[in-house]
Amino acid sequence: ITLIWMLANMLYLPAVNHLQSYRTTAAALAAQLPHSRTCIASHNLSDPQRAMLDYFAQLLFMPVAPGGASGCEWLLTQGGSEKPLTLDANWQLVWQGARPRDEAEQLLRLYRRQSR
Questions:
Q1: Mean of pLDDT values over 26-54
Q2: Which residues contact 39 (CB under 8 A, 6 or more apart)?
């Protein structure tokens, strides 16, 4: 029984890990950002999500102040696919995505503040 259990883990663990990992999501998100960015604001991201995005893509986030005020040029939000966060006209959607095959998690959306 132990041998069968270990064999099943060796064969299926990489596939399960790929589906639950933030590696591909973080890489796709980082590809949209310039290397010269100063800060990225975040809205509705949990601490584990911020930690995984920092681990896989070295992305550091600033929390959004109450009222949505932020001095950052970039904003990453998490929300449902049916109702995205309402932002003013200065923000343009650049990218959206989620972990592979994770129906329970909401979409991540990256916005960029337009020049005034």
A1: 87
A2: 60, 61, 62, 71, 72, 73, 74
